[in-house]
Amino acid sequence: MRKIYLLLYVVFLIFIFPTRSLAIGELEQSNASPSGSPEAEETVQPTTAPDLTEKTQETLGPLEELLKNQKLGPVWPFNPIKYAIRSSVDAGIPVNMIVLLLLLPLVATTIAATRHLIGLRGFGIFLPAALSVVFVATGPIIGIALFFLIITVSWFVKFVLKKFKIKLQYLPKAALLLWAVSLGVLGLMFLSPIYKIPGIENISIFPVLLLTLLAEDFTRIQLGKSFKKAFSLTLETMILALLSYFVLTIQDVREFALLNPEKLLLSIGVVDFVLGKYVGLRVMEIWRFKKLIKS
According to the model, what pLDDT value does residue 256 have? Predict the structure, then answer.
């Protein structure tokens, strides 16, 4: 429960201090006509895809327009959440924050179903769900790169401390870990203009902080496991996070969550209940033991 509150708090911070897209340049073209009169200058602004974690007009505009065009019936018994959403948006609550919070239970159910029915393992439900929110905020490529960078730095610090038998108390050790991670991310940002790494300049501090917290959980889970198994679990966690990321970025799913929150939440609850009653073999187990099952 503490981790769920932490995830919701970080999501809230991302909305309060949104990442602003920086203009990377303007293309201007001015040519003199044969008569000598200058032509009008043309400015081309870079376009960015709408980001569910940002309070930009590209994100809020279509969602607010959907709410305005929706015809509501009586409040009870089928529309209480719709009216609550409308009142919250009128009071200034960002509509994209509401959509993302409505989709988090769907993300958790997707991860649970993938693990329980298919057999992917990963590191719990919280870690892939939080990574999917980070991927929405940073983009999947930058998010994956930052995640592996932070994990590598965390593992290297713990390896050095263990190698030289340096024993530290937990809190100073965590502070040292954060210090090393900060240097690693700063190094990546310093190298981005040299190697032309796109997207690094627009990273907000809050996805980085969330990734740092997740890296600490990741390294703690890794204790007692072999490198091969830890690497396999990491890849499966990434698959779950990317799957959740695609769920969060599907436009039809966003619109359905905003316009039909009662149906969405009720359906998720029913699916979770039915899913919890399933005790059969997983898909990967059926494939693994197919020879034994046939015999």
Answer: 94
